């Protein structure tokens, strides 16, 4: 009998291990086949750059991720263009391993569910356990959100692996808790938790679920009261790790350092080092005491604490690499005070959770908080005090909390009012506050994502602004046949109706789990809640985000996948009412495998196959290649900057260009870095001494009109606002005596010979140069980024070309737009005379731009890529249309019609003829107009027909909504679509395309009648 049991147990373990590794192989193969071969958009460029050169990324730091990325980057063996492939491979393999541990987690829970207490399983029981594991794990493999992160260099793949290992480990402990040495699994969990902090904080949210597993296993007298107490203790443990170990360890180290440096006169870091040694000694002494006094619980607690710190020690990387002055060195956290701010993302401000203001609250006072310390030459110095605003009213649980101190306040208020349909001047009520929380924060920014993954999705576009719009919304597909969906949706690569089958199976599994194993089901529910809704409540997003945030909630999708797996057992239980146990088990597995993982793989593959896409890499290349030699390139957004960093830092593309991210330029640390050599780029012409712009000094210089006639030389303005002479300062009510800005009218006198000599323009363009550049500073105060820009303008002397990315908003261009000329993906500052003939047109330096765009640009395999993400489809496809249209117009204006036609043909040769939205369709028509103007009717007609087809598709869909009295009509698309039809009918008529013009006129007349009520 013992032999049979042992044989059964060995068989179970072997099959369980083998199928777990099979899941790893299937998932990893999937992700490797669909891997993006180069850099992706958003944070990936920064992460790859920081991994490859061991640099310091944005807050709160990802040191372990960077070090692991560095290890994988070495697989490129010196081929730097292959570095992102191998760092992406790290995510693919980590994601494959996550699926493996998910399989083992599901089988462990399934075994408990089927009451296989001895650790063995045979027959239909074995089929069900393994079937549940395969269905749940492979279903999660092909879910939208997890797959997206699995094929790019992003922290969420490794973070998910940490979550999977921690949850698997607590189930291993649960299975062996009565055996000697079982608590080693708890210590392992503590170590993984510590390590995970160096990847991402999401893994900490497993702590409540882990604690409840421990409680249910260790305590025999389970009651509601003791259960609530255990839950509260788990929250305390989470708080201690998040705020105590992760935050206050550095906080106390900083204050120890302050004492050692400022009081004892020792070097920077001495106090922090002593504090860490004392902390380590105290933990070691406690462990020794617990062993000697035979206190096993104290021993385990202290061992767990020690191993969390062991894992957390990866953060030593941050000050070490910051001190090394790497090119990318966000916040320069080379001391304990800066490191504390860095870890706690203090620069992003505090988010109110339990109490705070609504958006209509007014600031009525400002109180000084604690002293802000910064590293000086030999001691810590005060950089001022924290400011705490006092509002005229606060509320409990503020969700709509954007206030006047927020730079995006006006935008946020507008969206709040739009979403809640509040009238101007109407104050929000607590009911409005709750409506916002449930309808936008929870539904729109969480449950919509959840439904993407398990019910289905229309497309890859952003959809934060409407619950009704198709873009970015979920769909089961069941009722789509009656919705008259546009072809742009039905034929899109991301149209993935899942018929709600994964969702239904997961609900079935959850219901069955709660019915049969309430405690285990409660643990999964806690994991689901804390990695989903709890994040929504804690993050408290205030209005529109730069991108969809579904990746933040992947842990809750992981938890739901466990229930999808257990749904196989639930279905088999139902099937047993009609079939024998073996057929019920096998049949349920086969049906669920086809209905969920196979369906998911079939529907989602085309929307996740990035293997042919190079767009992020090549768009960044185009920014850099558009710059003149030794240029200063000002960028702003993430997708203007991170991929650029990758191209330059990893592949060494255009190392002479100095990239300056304006969203960071307000930091004294960043300005200071710009005063140093970087790659092959000389320091920026910023002449200010650090002491004149460090934090607490010239943070804001307010405008005070001195009534100076005319414009003032920018150098004179700079000298005035940076002078320490008392005559250049005024007293404020606060008692501060500060510099002020006396005028907004700036001037830079031009020496044409010098400008030509330095290669800014050709000798033939000398006559076009102005005698002086004159512009007006926008805004009523000068911040540090403005101050640095004034410094550059005053002292550059045309030695370095100054460029701005064309995707940047005009608010960030310092008022220099009259002198900015497009030369590709950048505007180049050129002091040409104002050209009245260019009014209404984008100014171009056409021949330089032609060489850059037609001869040097790369196109990311746009035309042949199997998959295009939303950034590629909207932002950069539109940027390409703008670029080629402006180039052609500029060439025509300058008398180069043949080159203009070549440019249009280049666009057609390299770019797909698609119309992702009404804006791209509009600019496609502008290209068609240009083609007609240049005599290429064939190309022009092709574009017009494509735009007309798109418009017809959109208008037909919106007309069906109008007939059905649906509220989600896209009024903008309808209005612009009809205007475009009118313009295209006129343009084709003027170019003797009479048949096409008649068709367009007929469409225009038809839609004019259909939408007459809207057009009125």
Explain how this protein is built.
By secondary structure, the chain is of the alpha/beta class. The protein has 36 helices and 18 strands. A 5-stranded mixed beta sheet has the order 8-7-16-18-17, covered by helices on one side. It has a 4-stranded mixed beta sheet with strand order 11-12-9-15. It has a 3-stranded mixed beta sheet with strand order 10-13-14. Strand 2 and strand 3 form a beta hairpin. Helix 5 (123-141) packs antiparallel against helix 21 and helix 5 (123-141) runs parallel beside helix 22 (581-604). The protein is globular. The relative contact order is 0.08.
Descriptive key words:
36 helices; 18 strands; 5-stranded mixed β-sheet; 1016 residues; alpha/beta
Brief account:
This protein has 1016 residues and is of the alpha/beta class.
Radius of gyration using CA atoms only:
31 Å
- Overall body shape: globular
**Order of adjacent strands in the largest pleated sheet:** 8-7-16-18-17
Mean pLDDT: 93
The main pleated sheet reads as: 5 strands, mixed
Which oligomerization state do the chains in this entry correspond to?
Answer: single chain
The CA-CA distance between the termini, in Å, is 87 Å
Unreliable stretches (pLDDT < 50, length at least 5) are: none
What's the total number of strands? Answer: 18
**Proportion of beta-strand residues:** 5-15%
Structural category is alpha/beta
Quickly count the helices.
36
- The percent of residues in helical segments reads 55-70%
